Amino acid sequence: MDYTDIRLDIADGVARITLNRPDKLNSTRRQMHAELRVAIDEIEAKACRAVLLTGEGRAFCAGQDLSDLRMDGPDEIREILDNDFNPLVRRIRDLPMPVVCAVNGIAAGAGANLALACDIVLAARSASFLQAFTKIGLIPDAGGTWTLPRQAGEARAKGLAMLAEPLPAEKALEWGLIWQVCDDDKLMDEASALAARLARQPTRAFALIKQAINASSSYGFSEHLDVEARLQAEAATTHDYNEGVAAFLEKRKPVFKGE
C-alpha cells in the first residue's frame, strides 16, 4: 500500500508512525485506518522493538473526520467502532513492544483516547486533551470510558466526558494520564530518544509487562499473583533474562537482543 494519510519510517528497531492529514488536524477516516492496519502489520513482520506515534503539523489527532461519515444512522457509527477504532486501540495495547506517543498538539475525541491507549505518552507543553463527544451528542469511545476512570478517577472522568473542556498537558500529567510534558521544541527529540532507548532494551519483557498490566483489572490480587508468576516464568525463558543476569554478575552492561 502507498501511504497517504500516514507516514511510516523504520530505522534501528524503531517504527515511527506519523498521522499525516495536517490540513484536517490529522482527523481519521476509513483510508487512514486501512493504512494504520497495514503499517502495524509491517511493524510486526519486521520485528520492530519500539513504536513512536505522533501527528504532523499543529495537532496530534482531532478524532473522527465527520466529513467522512455517510450520515446514514447508528449502524455506521457502530461499523466505524467495530471495524476501525476498536481494533486499532486493541492492537496498540496488545503489540509485543512498547508504544510511545508524542502528542504534539490537540488530541480530541477518539484522537485523545488513541493517545491514551499507548504505553508511554509524552505531550508538548501547549498540547491538550479534549473529550469532545458530548458536543455532538455522543459518549467517549475508543476506550475512553474504560481508560479515563482508571487513570484519572471516576469524578475526573465524568467531568472530562460531560463538560468537554480541554485538559492542558500539565494538568493531564498531574492527573496521571500521561508520563511527561516537554517543551514544544524538544518534544520530538525527547520522544525519539525514549523510543530508541526502549528499542535497545528487553523487548519480550516489555511485551509481558503489557500483558500483566492489561490483565490487572480483570483479576483480584490473589488471582493476579498467579498471572504474574506465569508471565515471570515466561520472561525467565528469554535470551535477555540470561544476558541480564550474566551482565550483572560480570559487572558489565547487558546487550539485549529483544529475544
Describe the protein:
Helix content is 47%, strand content 16%. The chain is of the alpha/beta class. A hairpin with a 2-residue loop joins strand 1 (6-11) and strand 2 (14-19). The chain folds into 2 domains: 6-199, 2-enoyl-CoA Hydratase, Chain A, domain 1, CATH 3.90.226.10; 203-249, Lyase 2-enoyl-coa Hydratase, Chain  A, domain 2 (Orthogonal Bundle). The model has no long low-confidence stretch (mean pLDDT 96). Strands 1-2-3-5-7-10 form a 6-stranded mixed β-sheet, with helices on both faces. It has a 4-stranded mixed β-sheet with strand order 4-6-8-9.
Keywords:
259 residues; alpha/beta; 2-enoyl-CoA Hydratase, Chain A, domain 1; Lyase 2-enoyl-coa Hydratase, Chain  A, domain 2; 2 domains; six-stranded mixed β-sheet; four-stranded mixed β-sheet
Describe, in short, the structure shown:
The protein is of the alpha/beta class. It has helices spanning 30-45, 74-94, 110-116, 144-152, 154-163, 169-174, 187-199, 203-215, 221-235, 239-249, and strands at residues 6-11, 14-19, 50-55, 59-61, 99-103, 106-108, 120-124, 128-130, 167-168, 180-182. It has 2 domains: 6-199, 2-enoyl-CoA Hydratase, Chain A, domain 1; 203-249, Lyase 2-enoyl-coa Hydratase, Chain  A, domain 2 (Orthogonal Bundle).
